[in-house]
Every structure is written in structure tokens, then in C-alpha cells.
Write a structure and sequence with these properties.
Largest sheet of chain A: 3 strands, mixed
Oligomer: homodimer
Helix content of chain A: 25-40%
Radius of gyration of chain A: 17 Å
Strand content of chain A: 15-25%
Number of strands of chain A: 5
Number of helices of chain A: 5
Shape of chain A: flat
Largest interface: A-B, 35 and 35 residues
DNA sequence: TTAGGTGCAAAACCTTTGCCATCCC
DNA sequence: GGGATGGCAAAGGTTTTGCACCTAA
């Protein structure tokens, strides 16, 4: 894969935050350094970077995907109020894939565990307001 | 929630299969018994049924969601070749939500565990062809 | 030089929504 | 009758794609 500063900026934008940004959020962030970048380029490179194993994609509802700069095994929590995705410190089970594969005959490459509920901030706001998802959160 | 035969047929279509169908697949199936039903109605009722706890929604990539007629706790496997979703017999951990909630302060309502890889059928086809996802599979 | 990357805009895709007719209770 | 529901079609949002131009190697 050939170098491009667009792709480097996109990778950095996802890696330099813990907010698991959406494609649109990455686009907004990268435009600070490369004002002329296009949204299509962001999508194209996010996809390439996921395929190359540099990023992880987190599937979301309604076609909104989020991206995770950390490819190490870890689990997520998704807030049903604000949509934010947080990392969970639950220990990652490295043996699980192999155990299930042996029992089922499926070829298993990875697994993902996601919790859902209400984050502490949205609990404090008693669910009345929808809180934002700042890129730097 | 008031009765309608459209909603009943939609619920039955998801419940009477193990294929975790998409909205479009449900639409195709329900049209056999109610030819005049509209896709909007299918989406509207799938959403209502999920909110009512009658069905589970499985988030997917690229905006395609799937639905699960079984609301008991169980885990899934998604084939990266054909997109099919299968149930996994891994024992469901009912205490996990409470444990993580106690440790993190998050309000946790549920969790989902999904494995990814290649299903036995796609392994047999050596990944060359994309296999279909029949509603009755 | 040239294969790969970008920007732009249109298209594709899935899902939601508004409106009026219809149906359950 | 009255409010919930359906059918239809248009709108909405996200992602992909075609094409001409540009750029890293």
C-alpha cells in the first residue's frame, strides 16, 4: 500500500482518540489538517485500513460504523442514550475462539463482546438530554 | 399494542426460522401470505416488536440489520463469506452484566457476544463462491 | 513512467417518515 | 367514533463508485 498523507492523517485521527469515532467524525477531524480532503477518501481509507488490520471496525445500528484504533483484544460498552462507545477492562479471553471452534467445527477468526446500557454521564443527566460525542472525549 | 395481521405475520416470519433474517428477507417472506404489505410496514413493526421485547435486533455492517426470534440469552456466529448468522451453544453468562456494572459504575442492560469467521458450508466451498442466505436455511 | 490515490459528484443502499385511507377495539 | 395501523412514496442518512486529475515510487 502506497503512502498518502490523507491515509496517514486518517489513521492518526482514529489512533489518537479513545472515542471510537464514526467516519463522519474522522472526516471532521482530519479536515483541520487537510481542509480539501473528501468524505469519499475517508471512507475509502478507513475500509483499507481495516482490511490491512491497522484498525478495527465496530458495527453499529442504522449503517453507522465506528472505528477503533486499538487492535488488541478488548471489549466495549455502548451507551444507548448518547451512542458513545467505551472500552471495558474485562479480561480478554484468548482461548475462547479455539474452544468454540473445536466444539462447533466453525472456522473462527475473532470474537467481540459488547455491553449495552447507560453510561455514567447519561445516568447523571437522568436520560433527559442527549449528550454529545466530542472527538476528544 | 393493538392487533394487526401484518404484525403477526412479521413476528411469525422471524420466529419460524433460525436464519436471523434481514428486514428485506422478512418482507419477501411475508409477501407470500400478505402480497400487499409494504416494506415500510415491515420496518415499522420490526422496530416495534424489538422495542416490545418480542424480537432481538442484531446490528450488522453497512446498515443491514438482522432479527432474532429468540429473546433468551445466546450467542452468535457470523460468517464473513456468506453473511449468515448462526446460534452458538456457548453457555450464556447471566452474571456477567452485574459483575461488570459493579466494577465500572455503568448501568448495563445486556451484552452480546459474536464470533466471526467462516461457516462449515463456506469452508467446503473453499470460499470461492458466495453462498445464498435462504430464509428457511 | 505508471500504478495507485484523491476529489468530486452521483448513485446505491437501507431505513425512516408524512399523509391519508383503513382497521381494530 | 377514535386512535392505532397500513400502504405508498418521498426523504433522510450512510456508504460506495466512476472518472478525471494528481502523486509517490
Amino acid at each position: 500500500m502506497r503512502y498518502s498523507r490523507q491515509r496517514e492523517a486518517i489513521l492518526a485521527a482514529v489512533r489518537n482518540t479513545t472515542s471510537h469515532p464514526t467516519a463522519d467524525s474522522v472526516y471532521a477531524h482530519v479536515r483541520n489538517s487537510i481542509p480539501g480532503i473528501s468524505l469519499g477518501t475517508v471512507y475509502r481509507n478507513l475500509r483499507l485500513l481495516v482490511e490491512a488490520g491497522e484498525l478495527r471496525a465496530l458495527e453499529g445500528p442504522g449503517g453507522v460504523n465506528r472505528y477503533d484504533g486499538c487492535t488488541n483484544g478488548h471489549y466495549h460498552f455502548r451507551c444507548d442514550v448518547c451512542g458513545r462507545v467505551l472500552d471495558i477492562d474485562e479480561p480478554f479471553d484468548v482461548d475462547l475462539d479455539g474452544e468454540v471452534a473445536a466444539r462447533t467445527g466453525l472456522e473462527i477468526r475473532c470474537h467481540s463482546l459488547e455491553f449495552r446500557g447507560v453510561c455514567t454521564e447519561c445516568q447523571a443527566q437522568s436520560g433527559a438530554r442527549i449528550c454529545g460525542v466530542p472527538h476528544e472525549a
